[in-house]
Specification:
CATH architecture of the largest domain: 2-Layer Sandwich
Shape: globular
Structural class: alpha+beta
Number of strands: 12
Strand order of the largest sheet: 2-3-4-1-5-6
CATH class of the largest domain: Alpha Beta
Distance between the termini: 16 Å
Number of domains: 2
Order of helices and strands: HEHEEEHEEHHHEEEEEEH
Number of helices: 7
Largest sheet: 6 strands, antiparallel
């Protein structure tokens, strides 16, 4: 696994995620335009899209691929979760949601494509650590959060018209949100939980991963808490670092932690 992680971090190889959703039918464009945060008229290449709830919080996320019969969606979470999210909003829309035995290939150099086969891919067990180190969002990291708080505002196209969550996005356009994602480096190992500074709750740990470079994690922390300081939570203590992590953190000397 260590060799596979090294390959991925150096930009070699790809991860193959099985299962894509085809959204087809006469109303496919209008339906998806009313659900996704991206303006479909502007997308001509594989692009990340978010699906929000009425509070503007992220429910699902996917990579969208153009398709001759409609749109292909590769979930960042589960295929069943993405399908259920879309099905909730189908009323009189003439659309179909078809599960296809295709693969989303996420190359370590950042490219994405659709393939019929996934042989030769890097072990999927490596992906959570790779994603943490490289700043690739997992659905579990961002679910329930505002796009602004988790650094995904570039996946929101303002001015595209009405979509689920658009009213909240319009109200918060140009405004500061109180939280941001930070990297966590364990000074003393703990568990996922709330984070505190001098006894005051300042955020939460979203994820912790044991890596060849020590115990690292991802936190959502109030913006007034300075980077470079330490916070406590879940029985541990963590140094706050910029996120995505600087390459020097994972390209230098390994830790036994």
């Amino acid at each position: 696994m260590k060799d596979a992680l090294e390959r991925a971090l150096s930009g070699e190889g790809f991860f193959a995620f099985p299962g894509l959703l085809l959204l087809a039918g006469p109303d496919a464009f209008g339906f998806l335009q009313g659900q996704a945060t991206r303006d479909l008229r502007r997308l001509g290449a594989p692009s990340g899209v978010l699906f929000l709830n009425h509070k503007g919080q992220i429910e699902e996320a996917a990579t969208l691929f153009p398709h001759a019969e409609g749109f292909l969606l590769a979930p960042w979470g589960t295929l069943s979760g993405l399908k259920a999210r879309l099905q909730r909003y189908i009323v009189f829309d003439r659309v179909e949601l078809l599960e296809l035995p295709l693969f989303r290939l996420l190359h370590a150099d950042g490219r994405e494509e659709v393939a019929e086969r996934g042989e030769g891919g890097l072990p999927l067990e490596v992906f959570p650590v790779y994603a943490l180190l490289k700043g690739v969002p997992l659905l579990g990291d961002i679910q329930g959060e505002l796009p602004q708080s988790v650094g995904l505002l570039h996946l929101v196209d303002y001015g595209k018209g009405c979509y689920v969550g658009q009213e909240i996005m319009a109200r918060t356009e140009g405004k500061e949100v109180p939280y941001r994602l930070v990297g966590l480096k364990a000074l003393r190992a703990g568990e996922v939980g709330e984070l505190f500074l001098e006894g005051k709750r300042v955020g939460e740990i979203k994820r912790l991963e044991r890596t060849p470079f020590g115990l690292l994690g991802l936190g959502l922390v109030r913006k007034e808490v300075p980077l470079g300081g330490a916070v406590t939570g879940g029985g541990g203590e963590y140094l706050l670092l910029p996120y995505p992590f600087a390459e020097a953190l994972w390209s230098g000397q390994r830790s036994s932690g």
